[in-house]
Amino acid sequence: MYITQKGSDVLMKKSVYSLVLMDDVIKAVDEQAYRLGTSRSNLINQILAERLSCVTPEMRMREIFDQVAELVSSSFRIQEQRSPSLMTVRTALEYKYRPTINYKVELERSPKDYIGTLRVNIRTQSAALIDMFHSFFAYRAKLENAYLSRLGVGNYSCEIGDGSFARRLINTGVLSGEKAGEAIGEYIKNLDHAVKTYFAAPSEFGENASLLEKNYRALLSRYII
Q: Where are the domains of the chain?
């Protein structure tokens, strides 16, 4: 069977090639590609890259997510994802009805200014709880932007929505692979600790804020992300 892929992807340095493969091989590839939620061409590319020790975006993302999982698996539930660019972990708040907080990381296939996006959302129907969520992340965004600006990082980008918070993960160019995964994992742990501290005692948050700020500064001394 002939495989031909039209077009090219300049960013990923892809070119057009034709391959002659057995029908049984193509059938097996298609079945595996379906299970993995990817395309035939992408799966063949991954298989050849692994065999020939070439690094693909999927391999880079897998290395990052493996490190994130290693860091957070003891405190978070890791949700299965079909896309190699996505990872979602969740935890429950020690609050009424134990609402769930989801942390979803989506990595860029071709990182430029950002290596990806972190989205945080709370699963609740309580308007009061959502208001608390918004108040915390308004505080957190202001804190992060202030400290990153002091370090000369001016591309902090975030958005607070209806029970959600999203921020771009900054690409400094010095973190790659395992180190990038370590930075993302430690950031999620730091953020989650701050969230839980706030929801545990909102009225006492002012007393805890200085310690949380110190913890964030310590994180920044190791990683800028």
A: 2-54, 58-222
Q: Report how far residue 98's alpha carbon sits from residue 176's, in angstroms, rounded to the nearest whole number.
A: 35
Q: What is the pLDDT of residues 167-195, one digit of tens each?
A: 999 998 888 788 999 999 999 999 999 99
Instruction: Dig out the tokens for 225 from the structure.
Output: 């992300």
Q: Read off the pLDDT band of 42 (50, 70, 90).
A: confident
Show the DSSP H helices in the chain as ranges: 23-36, 40-51, 57-72, 127-150, 178-200, 205-222
**By C-alpha distance, which of 219, 172, 189, 170 is closest to 103?**
189
**pLDDT tens digits, 54-105:** 668 888 899 999 999 999 999 999 998 778 899 999 999 877 778 899 999 9
Residues 6 or more apart in contact with residue 172 via CB below 8 angstroms: 153, 224, 225
* Cα of 14 vs its chain's centroid, Å: 25
Backbone torsion region of residue 16, taken as left when φ is above 0, otherwise alpha when ψ lies between -120 and 50, otherwise beta:
beta
Q: Which residue has the tokens 């990052």?
A: 64
